[in-house]
Structure formats: C-alpha cells, structure tokens
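Repro:
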Amino acid sequence: MRDGRTVRLSLDDVRLLALDVDGTLIDDQFRLLPRTRALLTWLVREAGKKVCLCSGRNPAGVMPYMEMIRGEGPLVVHNGAFNFYHPKGDMYALYGYPVEDFLEVIETLERRRLPFDVNTPYDLYVREVRPELAPLYAAYFAEPKVIANWRDLRDPIVKLSVLVPPEELDAVHAELAERFGDRFRVVKSGETYIDFVHPEANKGNGLRSALRELGLSPNQVIAVGNYYNDLEMLSLAGVGVAMGNSPPEVKERADYVTLSNNEEGVYVALVDLLFGGRLPRDVALDLERLLRETPKRARGERASGALGG
C-alpha cells in the first residue's frame, strides 16, 4: 500500500477512470457529491478522459450517474457479468446461464427464506416484492418484475443476488460458497449482498474487456473501489485506489488509500494523483463554473432527483 507521497502521475498518463459506485463514487445516501461530480465532468468534457463505472448494480442503476457527469464509455455491471458501451448500448461481454443451472440455488434460498433477486442483463425478477425491500430497490433504480415460475425465464441469468443481514454475511457466504462454489463465483458484494455470477465474471475481467475495446493498456487506468468485489479491478489498473471506508484487506491490496465515500474520497484521490494535490487555477475556475451551472436542487441529491425522477 502506498499513499499520495509515493504515487505520482500526470494528467496525460491517465486515459480512463474505472470507478465502483456504491461505497465509492456516491455517499451512503446514494448522492454524487458536488466536487466529485464537477471534477469528473471536467475530466470528461475538457480533458477527454473516459469513465468506466464498474458495479454490482444492473444497467439502470448506473446509467443515471454516468449521465450526471455527461460521460460516454464502457459500463461493467452485474459484477462483470455484463459489459456494454454507454450510450450506444453495444455489448462486448456477457457471462450468463440458463435458468435451469440456477434452480438448485433458488430452491435452497427459498427453503431458507432468504430474500433474493434474479437478474438478466437488463431486468430484475423476484417471486414477490416484499414491502420492506421496496425502498431499497427504489434507491438502486430497480423495478422488480414478479415471476410465478422461474422456468419461464428465457434470457440468460447473469447474476443472482442474496440479501443478508450484515451480522450474518460471513457465515452465510461461507455456507453458500462451500455448497455452490464449484459452479458459480459466490462473492460478497457490499456489506449485505452475496452475488452468484459466472466464474469468469468479475470487475477485473470486465475492465480488461473495456480496455481491449478502447485500445488502452492497464497502465493508463486509475481504478477506485471499496470492497472485496473490487480487488481484481484494483489489481489490474496501473493505480488501484481503496476508499477510506474499505475493509483492511482491500486497503492492503491497493496502491493508494483515500478518504471515505462520505468525504468525497474519489475527488481527493484524483486531485492528489493527477494534479499533485492542488488544482491549477484554470481548472479550479472551471470547476467553480460547473458547480454554478449545476441546478441547486441537484447538488448533493440522488441521481434520480437530479435527473427529474
């Protein structure tokens, strides 16, 4: 692990920013905070950088944040199981299974009465929408579709997500990984989720596919993340940045540790790494202008509020 005193880049060294979303890009209230939004917008519009959002979310859950920074580029979603280019929608990687391969997992979870959802590339399915989970789905811009018979699914399943109380996460993960780990990658995705994905699906492979499409090398990438499902991405990038709210094991694997997501750690890291800790006057003035241009109600609000619903 290194810090900003020993990791030094220039703006010209970096062509792409690979950013996790929850716990990294946005704060705990699902807000893209003002300085981070302004800096990323400037890097996209004025410096010609690409942003690749890499998330366990589905496409609908990440595209609003991409639009907030006026970004165009690859999106790595479902923890790397589905990768496509925004806004054109061109797919460049998909790791999926027919529903039959998931039936034993589904039966186990239903017997345990653990809430879960099943994801195809663009849609999310549940047996029922539990009232207590409706606000959570809304926060992720997800619109669950109720399905009576899982065998009716025709599109490939790219991810199955299990919601687990934080205090039970490690034990349930160990149990499910032992039983199904020979067929799926069973990964902790945040402090309350366990995801089942294809063994080759991870954010590192998703980022690698994006770089191949763009003709870039890993050395031209800064990747920022906060959790275990970000490790492959952080290891691949020229510089891997861990958030201050990351577990110790993630911080140890990173090249650089920044502040937490609630302290705009992405902004702090990028200013330090790309500008030596101090914005040039012309860039600072541009960011002030961008902040003034941002509608007052959108500053610090969730993406849904900023985009008008």
